[in-house]
Design a protein that fits this description.
- The chain is mainly alpha-helical and 320 residues long.
- It has helices at 2-13, 21-36, 42-54, 63-87, 90-93, 99-106, 117-146, 152-167, 173-179, 181-193, 225-228, 268-284; strands spanning 17-18, 201-203, 208-210, 213-215, 220-222, 289-292, 302-303, 309-310, 315-319.
- It is built from 12 helices and 9 strands.
- The strands form 4 sheets. The chain has a 3-stranded antiparallel beta sheet with strand order 1-9-6.
- A hairpin with a 5-residue loop joins strand 7 and strand 8.
- Helix 4 crosses helix 7 and helix 8 (152-167) crosses helix 12 (268-284).
């Protein structure tokens, strides 16, 4: 429903789509509703932007860090107040829109203790933050890459599947995500072709030898997808945008880790790919093509940290 509303507004207002700014706002509102059961007022939305910007700061004394720290406190307090109000009424807590609040209210930590109210609030804030920025980045990159001249065949196949999905009667969001196999492959290939993170960082606990290298304890290790995803032994012709590689059972999936590996891998990746399939289904059946708006630079400007996402000022003109 929210995807439908967002794309319909784009169609009606006939103005450029800002691949960073507009999609970020859409993703953030959608995920607040998913995890909290409510879309907050604009001032709270802005606090999330400040919190995200604070993660770019170089130190705790940086003004941006202090603004981000303050934003996290305000976001947590906002969620906490809303949660405590909902918690008073069991019927409200059991309502479908509060599914995740209900789950977190019953969750336990590593010691078996039930989450405190404050931990529930922090969990909601971090889930919204981690997933919205991943989803927004993926949607923006997908649209940009599909619009490039060299990917006309990929765009054609993506549109064909999107039209087929839209034509099916009584289509639900869950079945869209399940049946949109090529659009899911487009999402995965976008994450491979243009990784959004540099991989998770882990401190090596003991001295070890790895691939012929002696690594002392205390050194930081990372599996960087920007390197691994260009490995020809795993991804043939790695510099080509080829979603079909993810439609076949192969070792590509074994070496595909856009959100890191192990128990700390980002849970926002699967949610982001699901959201992108739903978004592309509607977007590709509404607009025929899109090109960079007048005055846009040839090289798309990017924000590199903490997630690689298209900068707010970059836009495209949409054609129906």
């Amino acid at each position: 429903m929210r995807t439908e509303e967002f794309v319909n507004k784009l169609e009606q207002r006939k103005v450029p789509l800002f691949l960073g700014k507009d999609i970020k706002r859409f993703a953030l509102k959608t995920l607040f509703y998913l995890f909290l059961g409510k879309v907050p007022k604009d001032s709270i939305i802005e606090e999330m932007y400040l919190y995200n910007a604070g993660l770019l700061s170089l130190g705790k004394f940086d003004p941006t860090f202090k603004k981000g720290e303050s934003a996290l406190e305000k976001l947590t307090q906002y969620v906490l107040e809303y949660y405590l109000e909902i918690k008073k009424d069991e019927a409200k807590l059991n309502a479908p829109e509060h599914f995740f609040l209900k789950q977190y209210s019953e969750a336990t930590d590593e010691f078996g203790d039930t989450f405190s109210d404050e931990r529930v609030a922090v969990t909601v804030v971090l889930m919204v933050w981690g997933s919205y920025i991943e989803a927004a980045a993926l949607m923006g990159h997908s649209i940009r890459i599909l619009g490039e001249k060299g990917n006309a065949d990929v765009l054609k196949k993506a549109k064909e599947e999107a039209r087929a999905l839209r034509e099916e009667e009584e289509q639900t969001l869950s079945t869209l995500a399940q049946k949109g196999k090529y659009l899911l492959a487009v999402s995965k290939e976008t994450l491979r072709f243009h990784p959004q993170t540099a991989g998770g960082l882990r401190v090596n606990p003991t001295d070890r030898t790895f691939c012929g290298y002696d690594i002392p304890a205390g050194y930081v290790l990372t599996a960087d997808p920007r390197i691994a995803f260009l490995d020809e032994s795993a991804f043939s012709d790695p510099k080509a945008f080829n979603p079909s590689r993810f439609l076949e059972a192969s070792k590509s999936e074994d070496r595909f880790f856009p959100g890191g590996m192990g128990q700390h891998q980002c849970p926002g990746i699967n949610l982001a790919t699901t959201m992108n399939v739903i978004f592309l289904t509607k977007f590709l059946t509404t607009f025929s093509s899109w090109t960079p708006s007048e005055g846009m630079p040839e090289e798309v400007p990017l924000v590199q940290v903490p997630i690689v996402i298209i900068a707010d000022e970059y836009s495209v003109d949409l054609m129906q």
